[in-house]
Here is the input.
Amino acid sequence: MWIDYAIAASIGFAGLLGLMQLTGELTALSMSAYQLTMAGFLLDELAAVSSWEGVSLTSAAQLCGPSEWGTQALHCGMIEAWLRALPQGDLSAAADGWVSLTWQQMDGSLMVITRSDASN
Amino acid sequence: MTSTISHCCVRLSDQRLSGFSLIECLVVNALALVLLSILLTASADMISAAQKAGDRSEQAIRARQVFDFLDSLVRTAQLPDTWTTDDITSEGEAVQYSLMDPCKEFGAVVTQPHWGGFRIVELANLSCLPGADTGVGLYVEQVLPCPDECGEGAGYQIVSTQCHLHREQTVEKFQWQVSWEKNMERPHRCLESAAWGRVQRIVLSHRSAEDSIEGVAVLRLQQIAQGLEATYRWSQPETMVLGIDAWQLSDLNRFSDLTGKEARLTSGRSHAVRVKAIIGPPRSETALPGLAIERLLVSAGRLSRG
Here is the structure.
């Protein structure tokens, strides 16, 4: 009878753990979709700001990035808020005109999306 | 008889030894219930968190669809790039726009150098719009190049004034003319290389949950009716997106001077409107706040996805 109890309990536990695993993965997937959408908004807004202000995308990224004086130079809209919403969010500009947005996903891996003036 | 009773007692005694006592059963059941309740609570929390994350993601995706649509409208709210890059129009002129009154219909033939644009309109002032509310709306005048993007139905056709010229003839300034046509086929006797398209007018407006038939706040779209008759009229509003709780528009080309009067910025720059939309939660039972998204829509430049 102990064995029966142990088998029934382990099946129940395994089922519940599987359910928790599934919901955890669903949450991670939804969070990834949300973060990716927000990152897309951020880069679109950055492109719009650079177009409106007449500066390159890399300049806009530097001015709208997390620097204290940057946001005073340009009206960066919600760029800062979106950047804060992304865990470990970082906006960096490369010399070749590419802007990359990096953030940490729920599983700890880093996600990077890039954009250049040419794709505007 | 005695031996039978004795055998029976021994058997009963054996059964007691191999099973659980009542206390043991109660303890085991209590432990199992405690563990089960802990697991169920944790599972319920996780399911709730997953549901909230899913709803939040759905809100963001809905916002993305709305702003992608707005971007696509703004992209076409000017003369197409291919019409303006061959030195016919200078770079400075290409970003300018000439937007007419939404209620003012096109004449028989209207000729001007620029077409397309967008601006904020006061809906209360637009008596020509059926079913219009108060508040502000986004008025967009699109130029859709034919034959790829303009469709086939009747409507306002835009064509270069050079269309009907012979190759040796020139006009001093490049102009585009718009007239009502029954279809969007290539204009007769027009040069092969000449571009033509459709001019479409669209008004986007917001209706609150209290006023809407659906019972939720909606974003609505109205456009010029494409009937065969050449009467200039606007269609009834169509629901474009459900669950847009609020919608605010601000014109970045306008500013208030020290006296409080509104003025326009110089037209050398591109035109821009800031749009703020609050996307409501997909399910009313989810205790999720609306997702506020603010985006800048700029006329010049070709914005694409990140």
